[in-house]
Known about the structure:
Blueprint: H1 11-17, H2 22-48, H3 52-66, H4 72-86, H5 93-114
Amino acid sequence: xxxxHLPVIDWEQAIHLTGNNKEFATxxxxxxxxxxxxxxxxxxxxxxxxxxxxxxxxxHKLHGALCYTGLxxxxxxxxRLETELKSNIMDNLTSLIEQxxxxxxxxxxxxxxLQT
Length: 116
């Protein structure tokens, strides 16, 4: 899935989603990012153990949280992953999980730089 046309973080969207409150947008993103490494580890574990029911539950939960942040790349990716899991389409599962790991790593590496 090509996400290069989307920003890693869209501050304009993040601020809009929080009622035009930049401080609150930053706080919401900070909270999400504190939990994100654990969420991704849990998603990876469910994938590795082939627990597709749990994987779908975890992906759905993360997708819901992403609806309140300006993270279009990860949100697009997690949305597709959720749709394919719900539709029992497993052809792209490995590449989507790998791409999710890459995008989360990229976000966590860049986020401190993006706040300035």
